[in-house]
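Narrative progress, year one. The postdoctoral researcher (J.K.) led the effort to move from monomer predictions toward full complexes, under supervision of the PI. The following entry was the first complex the group processed end to end, covering 377 residues in total.
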Amino acid sequence: MLRRSMLFMPGNNPGMLQTAEVFGSDSIILDLEDAVSLGEKDAARILIKGALKTFNYGTTEVVIRINPFSTPYALEDIDVMARLKPNAILLPKATPEDMKKLDEMLTKIEKEEGFEEGSIRIHALVETTYGVETVYETIKMSSRVDSVCLGGEDLAADLGVARTKDSEELFYARTKVVNACKALKIDAIDTPFTDTNDEAGLLADTIHAKKLGFTGKLSINPRQINTIHKVYSPTADEISWANRVMYAKDEAEKEGLGVFSLDGKMIDAPIITRAMNTLNTARVIGLIK
Amino acid sequence: MKILKPAKAGTLESNDISIMLMPGNNGIEIELESIVEKQFGAEIRTLIENTLKELGVEDVMVKAIDKGALDYTIKARIETAVTRAGEM
């Protein structure tokens, strides 16, 4: 599934829950954690339960961010939310130990509810220094993990440094998360850009993260979705290049050539894979048939 | 299900409804203010009453201030308030 954008929505806000799909993000994250005050956790669970039973969010991935295991809320969050069969749970402050606990709880609930085993997926929100250092083990702990999302604000606090506009302080974490995700063939989702009024800054930050290997970006405001999609959607030039690569590949195969060139550059298996991925993404988002 | 103590749920923001429950002795009594009172007042009262009955509440005084909540929100806020007001 395509996850260019994953948009946070406060779990205790009825207006946001009923319009969650209209902003066009690939995933929506209904939040029980930071966006819900301590005294309203019960209300948010009940409201999300009602929303999921009422609205059809179509092809948008529905993800629930639970509270961390270090709080008194996590167990009830999982017990109530998993029985609603969301597409996925977002595990905050993810570690290998907490991933194991969450996976075991989901397996138990799936059995009790008669859901297919493994059908509730997990996204791991890595936002601590320990989480960064153990990210590979965290992903390996459960076959349910579809992505790692990077949480830059909490991570900077754990590092004891300030967040900066160019996110220099996150460079190690970003590359480590991307490498672990690529090694295990799952999505790597970048930290949100928190200045919602700075569109140019968001664009630059998203382009930079894409260059590092991220496949999508968390979002804290619906206004950010178009910019993120613009970066993570193939351009007309990229689609044209991919089509030419595939055409040249077909021609080379007819001539029995293993390696061939296009515009003076050698085309081999990794380039062909990149071209195929570009065309596949373009198809999924309807840019080509 | 008995309402043991006063309890509130919901907010006064748009698309929400503020619900206050208080112990009562005369069945389900509802006081409603709504921005859509003329169009949907009767339906909202019926929904509140039916939701309370489904939760097993027989005696309660309800003060509701509606800011255009959909049914799912009204039901959720009632359920939250009932949970906070006593044992489910």
